[in-house]
Amino acid sequence: PGWFLFDAQAHYTTGVAPELVEGGQLLALYSAGLDQRLATTLTGPSSTQSPYVVPVASATGVKVTSILTTGDATSNGYKMVGIPDGLGAFDNLDGTFTLLMNHELGSTTGVTRAHGGKGAFVSSWVINKSDLSVVSGGDLIQKVYNWDVATQRSATTTSTLTFNRFCSADLPEVSAFYNPLTGLGTQERIFMNGEEGGSTGYAVATVVTGAGKGNAYILGKFNPATNGTGGTSVGGWENLLANPLAQDKTVVIGNNDGGTGVVSNALVVYVGTKQSTGSEIDKAGLTNGSIKYINVVGNPEEIVNTTTRATNITSGTRFSLSTTASTTFSRPEDGAWNPLNPNQYFFVTTDRLDTVSDGLGTQVGRSRLWRVTFDDIKNPDGGGTIDLLLDGTEGGNMFDNLAIDKAGHVLLQEDPGNAAHNAKIWQYDIATDKLTLLTKFDPARFGDTNLAATAPFTVDEESSGIIDMEDILGPGWFLFDAQAHYTTGVAPELVEGGQLLALYSAG
Known about the structure:
Oligomer: single chain
Shape: globular
Radius of gyration: 23 Å
Mean pLDDT: 97
Largest sheet: 9 strands, antiparallel
Structural class: mainly beta
Helix content: under 10%
Strand order of the largest sheet: 18-19-20-21-22-26-25-24-23
């Protein structure tokens, strides 16, 4: 809706070939209509609910559209399940795009999915670019291949596994797993995620395109307990982020919001080598590498004062990659590689709720934004430097997920948990060091400081999974989801409330 084609007649002949006669042009016009141009929140054609997240009054050029709400079904009957989290998207080149969505379910919740187990899973949706209407949906994971610890290879037969809490996710660029100069790697798309909870700490890669679509592989090389080194630790994976630089090395950073032993609250750096044979995961270099840990020189722990949450890590401090020691950060959650500089990796530490800033208590929290810069990502073992970009006093509270666009903006999402603090989305400008508030959850539903929530909604909410959609929808567009942690009136299949949304930010 709103699209028109027209042409322009330019009645000049100078320099125009006889065949062409005169000047002219074919153009496209889009008009959203006055009501849509003025609106800051829109309900998409496939959503039964208006947006759970709304622009704040101070934000300019910000719009939010609800795409799909928990319980909404597509034409094939597939329903959106609750606790949506990490996202990934790619263009289908036919006017639609495919969206992949983690669901952060516990291993015993929900219903049996296509791969044979309950618990966490990944849904896949086809969505029209023109109006964000949802065409169809289904489960992404169809088969699961476990890791054979004895042979240090992927199993050749499938297993029925249940997964525990898929959180953030990454759909890396093709360049992350394919080097066109050597032909090594794979050009198929691979969706990366992992278990944040439970005892297995599975890191997972699922093939999204090609003949192996729907095949999920356990990445045994990412955990000391399964990678053949004799260790016992496992991760509490918030996300697995593959570096986008095209090279024969495959570099992935895993953020651990939990885990055990040396992996606990650590940044894990996996380095493998791309191959020309094997499964798509083998070709991608995800099955033959080894892991090391970011170890900030002189700082075994981020937090040096448990009351004030002070840190001794200062900008410019060197870090190395160690096989035995890791800096323990205060809940390192999501991260992202800088699309403008492949040597730079940004991540947040959630820490704990700062009740002082809301005037609700005396507990100090210091959620921070960090940047690590490798000297040369082609030689990650060389280490680099770490910078503290936001120290936790600027206004943000419990940062969880993030995305970086090509304009140098870092979008930051809060997860305050079951608290009166209303979860927000912020925009950090790398060049200017400016932090701007964009959105908050709808106070009429979810409440706010000194404002109660309206049933069935509660004050337990978070937005998550934000991804940059510039390559598909244009500059300024992002997709994200909302977790509405209520169960009243929610069918067991759906588990909890939730919503998929689009965000446009002109700045």
